[in-house]
Write a structure and sequence with these properties.
mainly alpha; 0% strand
Length: 250
C-alpha cells in the first residue's frame, strides 16, 4: 500500500481522537509518520503540525456551533502559545531525533498523571478564565508545541482542566488553541524544514473527517470517561515510544 493510501485510516483515527478528546492527534501523528510512513523525525514534526492544525480548526468551528468553546480563554491561551511555539521550534533544531521522542514520552506520562489525579468536574464556570492564569500556561504549552512538533492538545486539555474548565469545555477550547499554536509553529518549521505534500494533504483530509465524527461521538460519552480515555491513550503511546527507542539504543 502506498504511503498516501496508508495515511487515510490513520488520519481518520487521529482526527477521531482529536474531535473526541480535544487532543491526541499530534502525539499519534508523529509516531505514525515516523514508524509507519517512514518520514524523517524532523519532517514528521512539520507535517504533524499541518495535519493536526487544520483538523483542529474544523473541529473548533464545529464545537463552537454548540457553545462548547470559551472563545476569549482560547484566544488568550493561543496568543501566548503562539509566541512560545516559535521559541520551541528553535530548540527543536538543536536536539537529536531519538532524544526528542524519549522526552516526548516522559511528557505524555506526566500529562496522563495530571489527568488521572484531577477530581470529577465541577459545574462549568460562568465566565472565561483569568488572563493572569491563562497566559503563562499558554506560553509553556506553545514552547512544547514548537519543540515536539505537535498540536499540544495532550498538554492543553489537562492544563485547561487544571485551571478550572470542565472537560466538556476544555475539549472544544483546546481545539481553538491547537489551531493558533500549530499555525505559528508550522510557519516556523516551514521556514527551514521540508514536507511531503502528498502524504500530508491526504492525512489532513482524512483527519478532518475523523474530527467531525469525533465531536459527535464525544457528546454521548460521560466527561469522566473522556478524561480516563485521554490518560490511557497518553500512557499507551508513551510506553510504545520508550520501548521503540530503548530497543534502538541497544
Amino acid at each position: 500500500m502506498s504511503g498516501a493510501l496508508l495515511a487515510v485510516p490513520f488520519g481518520l483515527a487521529i482526527g477521531l481522537l482529536l474531535g473526541l478528546i480535544g487532543g491526541g492527534g499530534s502525539f499519534l501523528a508523529v509516531p505514525v509518520l515516523v514508524y509507519v510512513l517512514g518520514q524523517p523525525v524532523k519532517a514528521a514534526t512539520t507535517e504533524s503540525l499541518l495535519i493536526v492544525g487544520t483538523a483542529a480548526l474544523v473541529g473548533a468551528a464545529d464545537y463552537a456551533r454548540s457553545g462548547r468553546v470559551q472563545i476569549k480563554t482560547g484566544l488568550a491561551f493561543g496568543a501566548a502559545g503562539a509566541g512560545g511555539a516559535i521559541a520551541g521550534t528553535a530548540l527543536n533544531r538543536l536536539v537529536d531525533g531519538r532524544a526528542l521522542l524519549l522526552s516526548f514520552a516522559l511528557l505524555l506520562l506526566a500529562a496522563a498523571a495530571a489527568m488521572l489525579r484531577r477530581p470529577p468536574d465541577s459545574p462549568s464556570p460562568g465566565g472565561n478564565l483569568s488572563l493572569v492564569r491563562v497566559a503563562p500556561a499558554g506560553l509553556g504549552t506553545g514552547v512544547l508545541t514548537g519543540f515536539f512538533g505537535v498540536g499540544g492538545g495532550f498538554v492543553i486539555v489537562p492544563a485547561l482542566v487544571l485551571l478550572g474548565l470542565p472537560i466538556t469545555l476544555a475539549v472544544g477550547t483546546s481545539l481553538l488553541v491547537i489551531t493558533l499554536t500549530s499555525g505559528a509553529a508550522l510557519a516556523a518549521h516551514l521556514a527551514s524544514g521540508s514536507i511531503d505534500w502528498t502524504i500530508a494533504s491526504t492525512f489532513t483530509c482524512a483527519a478532518i473527517a475523523g474530527a467531525l465524527a469525533g465531536r459527535r461521538l464525544g457528546a454521548t460519552i460521560r466527561p469522566q470517561r473522556l478524561r480516563q480515555l485521554f490518560a490511557l491513550l497518553l500512557i499507551a503511546i508513551a510506553v510504545f515510544l520508550v520501548a521503540k527507542n530503548a530497543a534502538a539504543a541497544v
